[in-house]
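Q&A log
Question type: sequence-to-structure
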Amino acid sequence: MKEKANEITLLITRHMGGALTPEEEARINAWIASSPKNAELFNELTEPDQLQTYLREIYAAKELFDSRHATIPVVNINRSSRKYAYRYAAAAVITLIATCAYFYFFYPRHHNAVTATKETKIQDVQPGGQKAILILADQSKVDLKMVANGPIATQGQTSITKSADGNIQYAGNEAEGLNTLMTPRGGFFQITLSDGSKIWLNAETAIRYPVAFHGTERRVELLAGEAYFEVQRNEKMPFIVEKDGYSIRVLGTKFNVRAYANEGNSVTTLLEGSVKVATGESNSQSKMLSPGQMAIVRDQSSEISVGQADAEGSIAWINGKFHFTQKGTLREVAKEIERWYDVKIILEGNVATEAGTFQGEVARNITLKSMLNSLSRMGQFQYSFINDKTIKIYPVEP
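Response status: OK
Response body:
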């Protein structure tokens, strides 16, 4: 433990001095990615705003000391002297960071106290969480975040219950009518339908479904957003997902559908089993998908494009992660941040193109500042909080 702590402390210090070798950079990145707490510590110790605070405190302390213990006349500082003063401050900051990292590993209580004090001063936004609104067949609304675990409602002979893990479950097959489940920005939720099929809803998603299934098919409608389905197999009653002019037909399988209105297309990604994606009048055009494939249907079009997919990456969100592909742009990343943290991102100047592309995974359970700091290590940008709902991202100053 001590040897590992000493190594990480040294790597953080060398990072701040710009002296990491490629091998050392790989080790510190692996340590950061291994735990949200590690990422938060690294961000706290190296973020620009906090470094400026450290510098101001160091300068103030030095000036106070000099004023009380001066034994030589005060002289003007020329550029060369100022350069050495900056080096002194930078060295002091690096020393302070190394000290904080040391206390984090060997005195956890001290670290927690520092974090709590710091968070009262620095503006930040908490990540999204488990919340949704349920609209029953009689159009009454239930805020699922506010209700206690246990029975929520009964419709016909079908009961709705909130389980201990905060999800809702339907039980029974004797009921009429439709229910709607909606997650807001900054929300996600899981539901188990009356047939045992499970659906995960990402932020800003809405789905409509029967209280109980009857007849020869199980039909649900994805009204907006992104949802992951694990469908109970029933060859006598196919499961059909409808979305704005196209449908996805399955017997029993696992797949993800992403259909946000501001993205210009809908993407169905298959993980297990098989699905049939159909568009046009009377489903005149259709494609069958195999595991690992995706179907893209562009808005206002009946054409279906099929290609290979990053299947596991497409469902990283249900495992508590953001997944950014090699071609992920800052504009696309900003949309994800806005939905999950319920904020507005302003991209200033040419930052959308100058920041480059993003690749990798970041935990979704960290604060917005920690998220932005992690992303800034993938691409080139700076940011500032205008208020707790608006963040400005701008190019790195030369």
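Response note: The chain has three domains: 2-119, 129-314, 323-394.
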